[in-house]
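quick q for whoever's on today - can somebody do inverse folding on this one?? i tried earlier but teh output was garbage lol. tokens:
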């Protein structure tokens, strides 16, 4: 017989590996109650600040995720070297709460840090803290990237609230570059309500801007003598949008809604006249609804529709309200169609899309276009997990969506899914069994973000089978927002149903789901 050569042995090994890869996927063991108890002890040590003990206890669990949960908590508490943040984010890029970790990491970067490592730490992301800005701009400069350094300093100066020390360091290094941006910084800090930053910025601007800032700050603080401060503002700055906004808020807080509405209508001539249209939007919606309830539909429509927004949830809400007013009391279906069309383009969730289709159908029906109305109802009926989606189906004579019945995967099928072996799943289960329902939910939600509808259903089964009721409900709600129907976790039947209670079990489950979402840490405020 021909002896095995090195080459033939390698070939046999490769064939064996290939054969193993073709075997059915075998369910792997998941962390359970025993691992959860050890995780609970590790987290208790972490909460006491005993990080070495916490890490040692986590290592005894035998799962890398347990060790990293402790490290994740340590980083969130801000007690680590800045490079530990960079290492963790690189190792666990899909874990929840990375924005907080990055802020903590920025604050920990020392002045003597290696410039190339600092730039790599940010990875193209903008700093979220003053310390981060100082460190990144300095790193750019040290690497000869002066243009990038100046651009970052200016960006932060015009937009970002920061500590006094960080402001001083930026001014010391980039004072000449920032000199022409002091008014923009003061204005931004006033809009953001950052009184301390605004107060420091006052000393860097002209006398006129100082008087403007004094009036805006006094109005925001509801201080005495606001009329005198407003009168002291120079004529060239008297129409400042920020000043108008503070006067508007002052009237709202004093219960002078009629005067506030008058000022809002006066300023609602352009985006520039409003300054920041999004800042006015919440009160605009409230005032429009109040006027609508008073019975003045034309005035309510004027308040709602002249918002000068271009996107976002406030844009969508105000477009819908404008369409509703146009269709109903104003009897302007053509105008309503325009608003509902913009509303539909601005929303993404099944609840809002069902609403858009229904009201588009109503508006088209009102203007006599039956075909367009039916198209609107058909569109809305695609989202029958929502109230308006069901109304659209009813109005359009369309059948119920068969998907509403839901599909439940076979018991235990989730154990064979690839996601069940993912670090996020393991970490979530560890935290669940440790009694950390809210922390576990963060990990399960991060896991859900990357899953297909079929895997979402399997994840729902995992959560219900392991008793993670709070996470199950939240997953069901999250899935419904994307149009996925996973009924069992959306309305889980928990052990409460087996208790001998004075009220029917379905009522008890409904109340528990509504009031606490099965989060055992929730305490009634009654």
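ok took a stab at it. sequence:
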């Amino acid at each position: 017989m021909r002896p095995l050569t090195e080459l033939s042995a390698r070939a046999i090994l490769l064939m064996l590996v290939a054969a193993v890869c073709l075997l059915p996927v075998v369910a792997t063991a998941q962390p359970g109650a025993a691992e959860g108890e050890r995780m609970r002890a590790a987290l208790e040590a972490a909460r006491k600040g005993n990080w070495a003990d916490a890490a040692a206890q986590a290592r005894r669990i035998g799962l890398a995720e347990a060790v990293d949960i402790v490290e994740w908590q340590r980083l969130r508490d801000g007690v680590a070297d800045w490079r530990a943040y960079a290492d963790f984010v690189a190792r666990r890029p899909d874990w929840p709460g990375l924005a907080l970790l990055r802020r903590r990491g920025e604050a920990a970067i020392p002045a003597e840090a290696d410039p190339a490592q600092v730039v790599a730490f940010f990875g193209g992301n903008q700093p979220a803290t003053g310390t981060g800005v100082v460190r990144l701009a300095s790193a750019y400069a040290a690497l000869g990237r002066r243009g990038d350094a100046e651009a970052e300093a200016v960006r932060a100066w015009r937009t970002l609230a920061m500590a006094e020390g960080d402001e001083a360091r930026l001014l010391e290094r980039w004072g000449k570059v920032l000199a022409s941006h002091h008014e923009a910084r003061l204005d931004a800090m006033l809009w953001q309500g950052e009184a301390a930053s605004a107060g420091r910025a006052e000393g860097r601007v002209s006398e006129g801007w100082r008087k403007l800032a004094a009036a805006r700050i006094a109005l925001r603080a509801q201080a005495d003598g606001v009329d005198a401060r407003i009168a002291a503002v120079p004529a060239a700055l008297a129409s400042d949008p920020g000043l108008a906004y503070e006067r508007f808020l002052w009237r709202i807080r004093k219960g002078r809604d009629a005067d506030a509405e008058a000022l809002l209508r006066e300023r609602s001539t352009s985006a520039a006249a409003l300054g920041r249209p999004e800042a006015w939007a919440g009160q605009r919606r409230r005032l429009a609804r109040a006027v609508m309830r008073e019975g003045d539909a034309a005035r309510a429509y004027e308040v709602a529709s002249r918002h000068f927004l271009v996107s976002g949830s406030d844009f969508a809400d105000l477009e819908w309200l404008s369409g509703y007013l146009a269709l109903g009391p104003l009897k302007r279906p053509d105008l309503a169609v325009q608003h509902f069309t913009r509303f539909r383009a601005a929303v993404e969730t099944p609840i809002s899309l069902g609403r858009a289709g229904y009201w588009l159908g109503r508006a088209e029906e009102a203007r006599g276009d039956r075909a367009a109305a039916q198209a609107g109802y058909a569109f809305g009926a695609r989202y029958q997990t929502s109230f308006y989606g069901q109304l659209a189906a009813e109005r359009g004579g369309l059948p119920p969506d068969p998907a509403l019945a839901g599909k439940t995967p076979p018991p235990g099928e989730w154990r064979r899914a690839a996601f069940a072996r993912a670090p996020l799943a393991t970490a979530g289960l560890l935290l669940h069994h440790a009694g950390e329902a809210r922390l576990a939910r963060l990990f399960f939600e991060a896991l859900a973000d990357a899953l297909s509808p079929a895997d979402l259903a399997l994840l729902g089964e995992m959560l219900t089978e392991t008793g993670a009721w709070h996470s199950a409900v939240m997953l069901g709600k999250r899935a419904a927002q994307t149009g996925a129907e996973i009924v069992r976790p959306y309305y889980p039947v928990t052990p409460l149903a087996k208790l001998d209670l004075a009220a029917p079990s379905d009522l008890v489950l409904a109340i528990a789901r509504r009031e606490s979402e099965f989060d055992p840490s929730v305490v009634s405020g009654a």
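fwiw The two ends are 86 Å apart (CA to CA). also The CA atoms of residues 261 and 287 lie 7 Å apart. so keep that in mind when u check it
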